Amino acid sequence: MSKKTVLLAVGSFRKNSFNQVVSDYIAEVLKEEGANVEFLDYRNVPLLEQDTEFPTPKEVISAKDQMRKADALWVVSPEYNGSYPAVVKNLLDWLSRPEKLLDYTTPTVIAGKPATVSGIAGSTGAKFVRENLSTLLGYIRMNPMPGTGVGLSVPAEAWQTGVLTLSDEQKNALKKQVKEFLEYIK
Questions:
Q1: Which long-range contacts (CB under 8 A, 24 or more apart) does 130-137 make?
Q2: Per-residue pLDDT tens digits for 2-49
Q3: Residue 104 backbone dihedrals phi, psi, to 5 degrees
Q4: Rounded to an integer, what distance in angstroms lies between the CA atom of residue 102 and that of residue 162?
Q5: Burial bucket for residue 22 (CB in 10 Å: 0-12, 13-18, 19+)
Q6: Residues 122, 79 contacting (CB under 8 angstroms)
Q7: How far from 71 is each of 7, 35, 83, CA to CA, in Å?
Q8: Which of 22, 29, 56, 59 could potentially form a cystine with 44 if both were Cys, beta carbons 3.0 to 4.6 Å apart?
Q9: 18 contacts 162 by C-beta, under 8 angstroms
Q10: What is the phi/psi pair of residue 49, to 5°?
């Protein structure tokens, strides 16, 4: 198997984000398994609106270039009101858009690319965001891994301290997902 590059998109920009902790762990395991890992930098991607879509903003061009070079996308997201955060939806909307005005025949940078999802949230274990993201990824013509990825619940002490320490059980679930995803994208 050639060395694959997995692009990680974290659905929270919050300082000390629990989903960033999960993403960092996923990145560590991916690297241990021989994959290249990059984090998608999309903090400054503007809101998508057709009036400002072309010429394409430089932040969007950069995000699309990162996606183009990657073999797969892994979205790690919190759950906001039973779904994904607006920043994640905005990113995926931009990535799913044509690169040239009115060119709907050339595949987008995400067309057919393998994808998977994970998330950590409250008592739902990020169930709803994972379901919604899996559906959305298929709708925008990505190639989502079957299922809805791994969902984790934030331990009570993490809510109190603001510090997340993954349990061995949580780490094992993520390790399993890494192995399955690398097999899926080979």
A1: 132/82, 132/83, 132/84, 133/75, 133/77, 133/84, 133/88, 136/84, 136/89, 136/92, 137/73, 137/75, 137/92
A2: 799 999 999 999 999 999 999 999 999 999 999 999 999 999 999 999
A3: -100, 10
A4: 46
A5: buried
A6: yes
A7: 8, 10, 26
A8: 59
A9: no
A10: -150, 140
- Confidence (pTM): 0.96
Query: In order of start, what are the domains of the chain with their CATH numbers?
Result: 5-185 (3.40.50.360)
CB 115 within 8 A of CB 109: no
Reading the block at residue 94, the tokens are 């931009």
Length of the chain: 186
> Which of 75, 78, 70 lies closest to 12, judged by CA?
78
Q: Are strands 114-121 and 72-76 parallel, antiparallel or unpaired?
A: parallel
The string of DSSP codes covering 103-142 is --SSPPTTTT-EEEEEEEESTTTTHHHHHHHHHHHHHTT-
Using DSSP's 3-state secondary structure scheme, residue 79 falls into coil
